[in-house]
Amino acid sequence: MTSIPLPWVITIFAVALLMAIISQSRLPNGSRVFFCVALATVAAVSAFVGLRLEYGYGSLIAIQPHLAVLIPPGFWLGYRSMMVPGGWPGRKEVIGNGIIVALAQIVIISPVHWSADAGVVVITGYYLLRIVSLFRSNPDVYVTLPPNGFRLLFISQVACTAFLTISLVTDAAILLTTVFTSDFLILHLLSGATGLMVVVVLIAILIAIPLFLRRMSDIAERTAPRTSPDENDMEVFSQVDSLMAESELFRDQNLTLARLARRSGLPARAVSAAINRCTGNNFSRYVNEFRIRYSGFQLANSDLPITEIMLDAGFVSKSTFNTEFRRITGKTPSEYRNDMSKM
Fold first, then answer.
1. pTM for this predicted structure
2. How would residue 130 be classed by pLDDT, with cut points 50, 70 and 90?
3. Per-residue b/e over 175-209, b at no fewer than 16 CB within 10 Å?
4. CA dist., res. 327 & res. 343, Å (int)
5. Alpha carbons 87 and 35: distance in angstroms, whole number
6. For residue 20, what pLDDT band results from cuts at 50, 70 and 90?
């Protein structure tokens, strides 16, 4: 009876999940691209491990770590893309992560015989900590996530964390074995045992992610026709909207849904629901519309530098400011100022 090597089972699951993500247009383009890069790399690395362990293609061991260091930043940037209005991380962030990967590649090619494993362990540990830090994030930072989709996003992050944790434990064990014993039998057993655990996690991911994506689509479809506000929503929104306009809370760079709810004396859930149903936007976009209106007024009626206006309006990131300004006005801040000066 013909059997499929365990690493190839991982490859099959990774490719299946990759195809599921490609088919989901509700995900921002940046998330789809980076998640697919990570999963394609998982598939390739697992295939190489299968060829090496089952058929003795030893030359592939030199390629494997160079690909493995692309997996953790791919997952990280996939989640980060959900936090950016345009669906793509800023150029500086992408370059910064690229530098980290480049440094890991330099470590891998160093002459020390265990440097490749060390490079993979360090970069996996670093990005695992960054992804774990996302569990403390407020749902409103995910500006491209449909309302009520945070719980399902949380499930996918748990699965990703489990996958990277198992990978880190595997690579760390292999590193220690390589440094102290270099026993091939132990290395083979490690690859097999941890490979089985990875398969279990990938099965969980394969089930959880498509469910998450399907629920995202269902939620998005339901929210358009059914989110007509009732009297309570209108009353809550009127109170919040007046507070935002009169107190200019939007200029606070650290404004959160919880802080706005405390200032208005209302439950955060009621404030979030009222904003969603009355405006069709999430909290972040609602606040950014106030900030853009304020910025537009300042651009038209003052000679202040654009960066100063941006910060005064409550924005922290220039890329977010420019993206939101174009989304709302159809122009860049410079174009808007030039057009207003001609009137």
1. 0.59
2. very high
3. bebbeeeeeeeebeebbeebbebbbebbebbbebb
4. 22
5. 13
6. confident
